Structure formats: C-alpha cells, structure tokens
Amino acid sequence: MPNVTKQIVDRDLRDAVFTGLLEGDEIFMKKLHKINDRQMGVILTDLNGHQRYVRIGAIVAEEREDMTAEELMESEIDAYEQKQADKAEKAKARADKAEKDKARRAAAEKAKADKESK
Fold it and tell me: Which residues are CB-neighbours of 56 under 8 A, at least 6 positions away?
C-alpha cells in the first residue's frame, strides 16, 4: 500500500470533492449526505487506500456596511492569492539559498582536497 503524505492526500480529496460538485457527477452526488444545516459529508477512499470522511461546509459571510458582497469576495481572493505568492517567493528564496550553500560547501571541500594533495 502506498504511503502518500497527508498534504498530497488531503489535496487530492479536496480536488475530488470540488470536481464532483462542479461537474455535477451523479455518482459523487449520490454519495453526499446531509450532516446538518451547514454541512454535507461524503466518504471517499484516499491515495493510501483508506476511507476518509470529507465535510463540505457552507459559510455565509456577514453583511458589511463598508463593502459589498462582491468586494468582500474579491478581497478574500486577493488575500489568498497574495499569501500563495508570498509562499512561492519564500520557497524560491530557500531553494536559492540551498543551492548557494551547496556550491559553497563543494568549493570548500575542493579547496580542502587541493590543500591536502599538496
């Protein structure tokens, strides 16, 4: 049985749920059960072969006097996209630093080997 990481498993399950909902997949829709007034649930098999319970919730945002519903949704989308861009930038910086550190260590080892061979 494969041992896929939690991040990958959860992402795959979310993708399966959203695809099933957006495409109106009849088989998926028949698996949905009402849990309460705010949630539906479905049992899916994850990439590791385990059954998982996935909850789908409907959150209704409070009305705001300072912005319209469209503005609120757009502000949340913008905030999410900015966080993703920040994460990508940090990951790139870490990768660049790791590459520089690797090159520095290799140069130091080469210099040490050259010094010892003399």
Answer: 17, 21, 32, 39, 40, 41, 42
